[in-house]
């Protein structure tokens, strides 16, 4: 009887703590299952779920590098290198990789890939999105050039106000690959 009461109290405290943050006990696992990125790439669910602080620990996988304290893929790191070189060449400061914006970009790219809906998110950021169908080259340079050649997207990448960003693509094995770049000041 006493153990049952203690377990009930612990459950109540956990539920209250999660509820204070707008979560339920099932929220994190459901999000991790929803994101194939978290499952197929070996990224720990805590890293891909956007819940809680992101401690810098070991790399989530062999294709990851640490940039500005954020684990991102080599593909994403190459995109940031290209964009920041472009910003410098145009008299702008480079942007820093943001964990929050990287998580948002990752979730949105995978959402577009899963649903097939090519639309902007409701996140309050400067946002560039792109889609590359199967058969076209898939490199960070391709997404960068696509946005550089579009006046509005180019303006986002060169904005003086922008200081941090997140970039990610959807599952590259699918017929269409979606990319999201989110930028903030």
TrEMBL record:
InterPro entries associated with the record: CAP_dom (IPR014044), CAP_sf (IPR035940)
Pfam families: CAP
CDD domains noted in UniProt: CAP_bacterial (cd05379)
Keyword flag ATP-binding: no
SUPFAM superfamilies associated with the record: PR-1-like (SSF55797)
Signal peptide positions (record): 1-27
Record's protein name: SCP domain-containing protein
Annotated source species: Corynebacterium phocae
